[in-house]
Amino acid sequence: xxxxxxxxxxxxxxxxxxxxxxxxxxxxxxxxxxxxxxxxxxxxxxxxxxxxxxxxxxxxxxxxxxxxxxxxxxxxxxxxx
Length: 81
Hints:
The radius of gyration is 27 Å and the shape is rod-shaped. 79% of the residues lie in helices and 0% in strands. The longest helix is centred in the last third of the chain and has 39 residues, at 42-80. The protein is an all-alpha fold and 81 residues long. It has 2 domains: 1-39, no CATH class; 41-81. Keywords: Membrane, Transmembrane, Transmembrane helix.
C-alpha cells in the first residue's frame, strides 16, 4: 500500500511560492512517483510491528530451550562428579 499525495495542492503551494507552473508540476510528479512510493504507511508499520513481536516470542522460546538444556547438562555433570 502506498501513501497518497495531493498533487494539485502541492503544485498550488509551489506556484504561490514563486515556482513556475511547469517546474511545480514536475516536482509534484517526482514526489508522487518516487518519494511517496517509498514512504511507509500505517499498515506497513503495523505489519512490521507484528513481525518483530513474533520474532521476539520465537527468541524467548529458543532462549528458554537453551536454558533447559544447559541446566540439564549442568545437573548431569554434577551427578557424575
